[in-house]
Amino acid sequence: MSDATEDTSRIKARRRQSQFFGSILVVVLIAGLSGFGLQGFGSGVRTIGSVGDQDMTANDYARSLREELNKMSQQFGMQLTLSQAAPFGVADRALQTLISRTAMDGEIARVGLSVSDGVVADRLANIESFQGVSGTFDALNYRDTLSRNNITEAEFEASLRNEAARQILSAAIGGGFEAPAPLSGKLYEWVAEKRGFSLLSLTESALPTPLPAATEAELAAHYAANIDDYTRGEAKRITYVALLPDALAPTMPVDEAAVRAIYDDRIAEFVIPEKRLAERLIYPDQAAAEAAIADLAAGKSFDDLVAARNLALEDVDLGDVARTDLGAAADAVFALTEPGAVSGIISTDLGPAIFRVNAVIEAQETSFETVKSGLALEMQAEAARRTISERTEALEDLLAGGATLTELAAEPGMVMATTDYVAGADDNAEIAGYSAVRSAADALAPGDFAEWTGLDDGGIIAMQLDEIIPPAPIPLAEVLIPVTEDWREEALAKALAALAETHKAAIEAGVAIGTLGIVTTAPSAGRETELEDAPADTIAAVFAMKPGEVRTLADGTNVAVLQLDRILAAPQTGAEAEAIRAAIAGSLAQSLSQDAQALFTQSLITPGGLQLDQATVDAVRASFN
User: Is 47 helix (H, G, I), strand (E, B) or coil?
Assistant: First the structure.
């Protein structure tokens, strides 16, 4: 299906949806009528404001919020809270919808618009939630549903009547709009036009001479001209003391017997028996298995046998198995040592089976001596974490009792250091690799008392802010590598841009673009075309050029020469052309309809006057969080 056809389908679907009045609506109406339960509002009806003489209740706004939240949740595929949806303007959009709806209710009351009892009855009959097993309206089900939601029949039917009246008024205002033919025609010509072009991409290898190395003077000049790029942001000079497992672990005693016990407990990690990557195809009886062996002898493969049983290979895959996994079949399966080898019939607890071995995994054994030092380090690290945990309470008491960081640094295993920390920088000291350290440092303010912060590896740290260090340029010697890389990128971009201008002049003088390098040719690109490895504005340039025109494009070191070969006018006939025209006309008509309805409701709001109780509005929103 073409994009145009999809657009047309979506537009038609939206029209059908605007006429739909069924089980979805009953949920919305019940949600609005069943009460909102704002705490502290008492038993009376609390309003959030009015449009003219039409009040808007807290329940009205709650219903509108629920509608908008549900729409947004459907788009994300999960139920969102109001806080999660807030950045998308859900609360304001729900309020505006309620204001517009209330304004229309006022106009409906003014002109005496209503629908008959028969219309209400027909709509009730078409709501699936009120239908019985026979598919027809079930009065008992209807009354029970309303009763469970504390809604009377009169209230619900009045809501149906009001909603139907709004639909009639809305259709009267927004119906009958047609897109102006000249406008839709122009839009079609613009949308469906395509263009053919040639793109010569330039890389460093295309330069006539290699890019020279930067001189000291050039690097110094680049550094000075771009000093903001090499300036370290405002820093917090922080002194800290920390008790870290990695620092404390080497001081922990090692008991070789305990290390040996760890090895023995985890022996399965270090002594891995020989294994097979195997598949097993089970048959219901011996006769079926023998028939399969005959098929193998006749030239069929194991894969053929699997397919004949209506199975997939993953259905028969055993993965890597040891002898102990195979029971009585172990000897026969482990006798197969060639990848792809297929067994004869092997008896198993599940019946006769045929096995295929896809690989042999040799036994592996890692000796205690090989892993002893690593296990000892693990044991020391765990002992260090336990020691830190045991000492934490005493250290907290010392800090609370007025001990300084310098005094705490005298405690066994403690490390003390001072670092300049810049939020978000990637050149902070190693201690800032802990997320808890970064969070604490970000929050640290002048005058804060030091306090212990737990680290994810079991360590603890306490920090104090010494001073704020203003932004300062990083010495050139310390950033020489990035300065050199930046200078080279800038020099390459300039060299490629100059080469592009040379090629542009040559093409305009009659040289074929294809003789100047590797050219990408697009015979009929549309405005929606996406290009890889091309300057970002390539398609925009294509649709701004005249046939034969040549332009240079540059996006940093992504440089190209573009020539427009031809303009392909929008086709005037064909199913796709008609579908695109219909989609454009439908979209324009819908836009005009929406604009008309918005203008109409705004005209009702302005003279009627809008009053809002912001405190109640905020209370409704707060109750959703």
Answer: strand
